[in-house]
């Protein structure tokens, strides 16, 4: 479980995230939704210790973020941000192999090689393993970064808008991969803009607006017309499809 | 994990060719035209060979490390104002001590003091800046920008100090303000080696961590790297190496850019240990082979430092025009 207690963030005096308290259960896919500037990425970066904690406390599976060594936390959670830009010139296979760093620190064993091969296969990258990253399309690069996070093989995956640049089929492949991890006890906290992916795959949804947690609960509880219309300040209808919410915003 | 390379054979072959070329240059430098008092001349050539190798290795490693930290292949440590600080210190020392006082300073003590001063500046600058705001990604940019501004300040202070000097003292300052590969500072080789060799050993030891660092702050933190501590440590290494090379031959602006760029071009995507070794081999090859060519082949009718800086400047422009800012 990720335990967020009174965590807040200010940048140059402006409140980006009001003191937030949240419990994110393990073994589930939790979607963070909300309009631009809601504080979703900030919250995710604070949990992922990419941004330093200014106040409050975060613990992940009982490990306090402030008091736990970084390499220990790297075996507990993998973080993937929005940017896929790389200064280093790397091949896809090499990038994905870096995901094993927390486990082998540069001395890969058979398990590490197997994990890299599995991650490449899971994201359809076997044929691209020898290609340089700067020769890939945006979607292929995004899949390579996702495979690197998967190769880290951590109980938690923290993904910030992982659908960026992905086509529909690969977006679905990603959600299926998260579902497979969930079936094996894995957990994911994912910032999503496509609400139907949250509706179709998430176990819990946390809605944020203006730096505050607006609503949280199951998809059925949060993905309602009233909550979403209020969240995005635009009329949104919600239907049902195969027993799950179906968000309609193009009517 | 340290990335598995696609063609390790080719990497080994290229490193072997570079090593072979360097060996030829070393033998040529040492033995071509050896006549008269052979032992004495060989001793002199060996001293200079050691100095050139130290300078080459120090500049190469400092530049590769700096580019990794800065996440930018067009930057060199000189942009942080280290060279300008060195010139300012020399100017102030000549102004304060006079020509006689300056030229009679014990070489070893002067060298260590300069290295300590430049390292202290690096620690103060990087430690302070990177410690603020939690070490976010922008702090590297802010640190470099501050270095650029400090460089301008140091150059201005050196220029002001130079205006106050008499022409003879000014000539002394000028002599140490530009790189001179032909005459490395005498008596400093051992002092420099005592600093440069351990610093390079540490850099090579850090190689796999540098590979992770090269992925950028966000990914490095996610993979469990102590990012801020490593960045500060690497920048201190850069300061030590730049201080040593600058004290030996004076400020070098573009040489590092050439060797780091060539190493990257010859070994694309190679891990840091390979790139560091390649950059060192290339730097030593250019300096020793270049000095060999310019001294024995061209009979001192041209200056290596001018050619290197000119070629480096062209490469800098080419990189800029090609838009390879990262």
Reported by name, the CATH topology of chain B is: ABC transporter involved in vitamin B12 uptake, BtuC
Principal-axes geometry of chain B comes out as: globular
The percentage of residues in β strands of chain A lies in 25-35%
CATH superfamily of chain B: ABC transporter involved in vitamin B12 uptake, BtuC
List low-pLDDT spans of chain B: 1-6, 133-137
Low-confidence stretches of chain A: none
Task: Find the biggest chain interface.
Answer: A-B, 47 and 31 residues
Give average pLDDT of chain A, whole number: 93
Strand content of chain B: under 5%
Overall geometry of chain A comes to globular
The counted number of beta strands of chain A is 12
Series of secondary-structure elements of chain B, N-terminal to C-terminal = HHHHHHHHHHHHH
Element-by-element helix/strand order of chain A? EEEHEEHEHHHHEHEHEEHHEE
Any overview of this molecule?
The complex is a heterodimer of chains A (251) and B (326). Chain A is α/β, with parallel strands linked by helices and 251 residues long. Helices cover 34% and strands 28% of the residues of chain A. Chain A has ten helices and twelve strands. In chain A, the strands form three sheets. Chain A has a six-stranded mixed sheet with strand order 6-7-8-3-9-10, sandwiched between helices. In chain A, strands 2-1-4-5 form a four-stranded antiparallel sheet, with helices on one face. Chain A has a two-stranded antiparallel ribbon with strand order 11-12. In chain A, helix 7 links the parallel strand 7 and strand 8. In chain A, helix 3 (92-98) packs parallel to helix 6 (138-151) and helix 5 packs antiparallel against helix 6. The longest helix of chain A is centred in the C-terminal third of the chain and has 16 residues, at 168-183. Chain A is globular, with a radius of gyration of 18 Å. Chain B is an all-alpha fold and 326 residues long. Chain B has one domain (55-177, 186-322): ABC transporter involved in vitamin B12 uptake, BtuC (Orthogonal Bundle). Helix content of chain B is 77%, strand content 0%. Chain B is built from 13 helices and no strands. The model of chain B is unreliable at 1-6 and 133-137 (pLDDT under 50). At the A-B interface, helix 2, strand 6, helix 3 and helix 4 of A face helix 8 and helix 9 of B. Chain A: This is ABC transporter ATP-binding protein. Chain A: It is found in: Cell membrane.
